[in-house]
# Entry
Amino acid sequence: MDDQQPFGDPGSKLLPAGLADGLPPEAGHESMLVARLVARFAAQGYALVKPPLVEFEESLLSGIGAALRQHCFRLMDPVSQRMMGVRPDITPQVARIARTRLARAPRPLRLCYAGEVLRVRGTQLRPTRQFEQVGAEVIGASSAAADAEAVVLGAGALEAIGVAGLSVDLCVPTLVPQLAEALGLAPGQVTGLRAALDRKDIAAVETALAGTHARAIPTVTALLRATGAADQALAGLRRLDLPPAAAAERDRLTEVVELVRRAMPALTLTIDPVEMRGFEYDIGVSFTFFARGVHGELGRGGRYMAAGAEPSTGFTLFMDAIAPALPPPPAPRRAFLPLDTPQPVGAALRAEGWTTVAGLDAVTDAPAEARRQGCTHCWRDGAVVAV
# Structure
């Protein structure tokens, strides 16, 4: 298949912003990658679930789903006359399934999924509003080993499908809120502090903590500086005199890093202890997958509380970022079979790994027709010949 996309016009303006048709060969490439990822999760004990694209908004947007309300398309169900939502994320649906349909299944419950999501608007880094998610969740597990398993499972799966230069950035979104609570910061100060930390702006941090909380400035700025390679960042965090809850989060992060290192010694790990953006419902160690030379994140995950107050962790991979970052598979050997080719011939070729394209009309020049249909070979005089 050539690069001119013969099946459609790439410049078409028929679709809303952020939506696009999946065309050959990219659509097939992404589908193959999804199948490989799900198969890898299944091989490690993760059972596949398939939530619906649309469900009633009171269930879709409850629990951890409430954090995604602003991203959700809503519509009226003409049958029940109740409001429904189009899922902006699959993790809340998996949590619902665990609480209801699989409530009696043994814990920890390992589930995986793959499916399309739709969001009201894209972001600067991800303008696409509809994309495929592939992910895995561990429901009902509170140990650091579960956090590490999620990181290792996701990183191992990405490496297995060919992602090179992989790195994992770990954070604890609850660390700053816990520190702010221990300091007794007012809501307005917390907002200002979080905005300053998001910008990595030390001067703004000092402004947010000026006055009665100035004594906390050295701790918070040191927390901001404890960013980078995991060993260096953890060393900086260990030097800080943190309140008990924040110190416990630091210790948990240290344990997770040690477990991940034990499983994947060569994996690049970095830490950003003040990162909170995008982790709307995470309550513990969280992480983002990146790869050298790839713009934006490949996926993210972390600890959350599933419906029914079950401690859980997991991750979601974004196929719209992953698939373009990988080289497409080699073009298949395509053989054109003229109209009168016996059926057993095609079956035998497919068994040998060929892709066959059957002719539907009689042609006088089989090689020319083969080339026209994007084939590399055709069946002629009892043999497959190159065209």
